[in-house]
Amino acid sequence: MEMRKDLEIIANIIEPNSRVLDLGCGKGELLLFLKKEKNVSGFGIEIDIDEVIECLSRGINVIHYDINKGLSFIDDDSFDYVVLSKTIQQLKSPGKLLEEVLRISKKAIISFPNFGSIKVRTYLFFKGQMPVTSELPYSWFDTPNIHMFTYKDFINLCKLKNVKVENVIPTLSFFNKEFVVKFLPNLFSDNVIVVVSR
Q1: d(CA 108, CA 85)
Q2: 121-143: average pLDDT
Q3: Within its chain, how far is the Cα of 143 from the centroid?
Q4: pTM to 2 decimal places
Q5: Which of 53, 126, 155, 174 is spaced 20 to 30 Å from 96 by Cα?
Q6: For the chain, which domains are there?
Q7: Is 159 a residue whose pLDDT tops 60?
Q8: What is the mean pLDDT of residues 144-161?
């Protein structure tokens, strides 16, 4: 089964037999893979009704709901992992949701596009417009991304909220990964996956 690169990395992080909640689960690719390959007990929450229907047709447990309304209906420590794959930048209050996510789970795995990457900076410098790339395929006027932030911005949010950053995995299309991880993830990573806990 072929998945987005960030979803493959996230799937490798999640331990077998875990309880997983995927917020903004889309068509359920990650949950389907985890169910088949890792015996995960998974649930999804998705706002797009067509994608909810696709999840249900695949046998994925999913709730049609807008997570901007909060997660107060979910009990504390209900999950081992909560996943937000390319979702957090689309939320009205990412900081508030981060707190809720870590109330209901032991760990969260969050992936997001890095708006501080050299690709974005170069595009802005030479074209003077918001970039449209394979990682950011929307024009500024129809993008679902309402918060355009960088890797450093997210790390600062974690510090502000007293959230422990356990692992950072930048994904990139060029340069040596080890160099990027050690020295310049904010500049060279196209997307970032961060594992956080309380």
Answers
A1: 10
A2: 75
A3: 16
A4: 0.87
A5: 53
A6: 5-197 (3.40.50.150)
A7: yes
A8: 86
